[in-house]
Each structure stands twice: as C-alpha cells, then as structure tokens.
Amino acid sequence: MFLDSSFLCTTKACIGLTPDETDKLTAICKKGEANKGDEIFPEASRADTLYILAKGKIDLRYKLPGKPATKETTISTIKEGDTFGWSALVPPHIYKLGAYCDEDRTQFLTIGREEALELFQNEPHIGYIFMSNLARVIARRFYEMEEDMARSHGMDLMCEW
C-alpha cells in the first residue's frame, strides 16, 4: 500500500526526514487515482494540492491558444516517486501547466496546501527538509527543460546548414 510512511521515505520530497517526521506527513496525505487521459488539474487553475506519484506516469502539458493540451505539448513526464503540483506551495498558487494521466490505474498521494503549511509551521524541521527537497525537484525540472530546449535549438541550427 502506498499510503504509508515507508512509501514516502522512498520519494525525493522526503529525503532526510526521520521515520517519525514521515509519519506526520503521511497523516495529512490522501490517496488519489486516475486513468489514462484523465486531467488531474488544468493549466492556470488555482493550486491547492501537491501530488506525489506512487504508480504510473503523469504528463505536464501546456495549451496553445484555442487548442487543447496534447501529448505533443508535454513539457515534462512525472515518474513514480516524483512530486508534481508544487505550485500549491509556491505563490501565486496557480498551476502553470496542466497534469494529465498517461497510464491506467495511476495512483498518487495528495497533500492539501493548508494542511501542509500547518504541519510545516508546527514542525519547522519537516517544512525545511520538505521545501529544500522540493526546490531540488523544481531545479531539476527546469534543468531538464533547458537541456531539451538546447537540444531542440541545436537540431534546428543543424537543419539550417
């Protein structure tokens, strides 16, 4: 079962938390499930929930004006153990991309913003470790995006020769 502290201990967001601290975080988590093609949250919507993927894959996509988000507009694919929806903990609390389920029977944990902030206020060490890990997740995602853009731009330049 993925709604227990042993699962959270394996996630990037919880590296460095003690078992007791992970239990406290687990206590505010809820289980969620989705199937291929389901929209977990839409782009530009209010971000109230952070997600930790337990099973499956999630695509983070953008919409072009007047068109729906598609597989071709995927910016990043979230894999098991990764966190998404971090805008819930970072102002202005708006999801910048939409999240779409890419596999049937996808499972994830959800953490409400208010519950997380209350826990972090009452347990500052948990908040510090979790947010530090979340900053690494965000930085890694931006680095991967930058690498993809550089590769794409390089291919464009090569095709012009």
Low-pLDDT residue intervals, each spanning 5 or more residues = none
Between the first and last Cα atoms, what is the distance in angstroms? 54 Å
Query: Describe the biggest sheet?
Result: 4 strands, antiparallel
Rg, Cα atoms, Å: 17 Å
What shape does the CA trace take? globular
What string, H for helix and E for strand, traces the elements in order? HHEEEEEEEEHH
Mean of all residue-level pLDDT scores: 92
SS summary, helix count? 4
> How do the strands line up in the largest sheet?
1-8-3-6
Question: What kind of assembly state do the chains in view correspond to?
Answer: single chain
The share of residues in helices is: 25-40%
Strand content: 15-25%
Count all strands and give the number: 8
Structural class: alpha+beta
Description:
- The chain is 37% helix and 24% strand.
- The protein is an alpha+beta fold and 161 residues long.
- The longest helix has 37 residues, at 124-160.
- The radius of gyration is 17 Å and the shape is globular.
- The protein starts with a helix and ends with a helix.
- The model has no long low-confidence stretch (mean pLDDT 92).
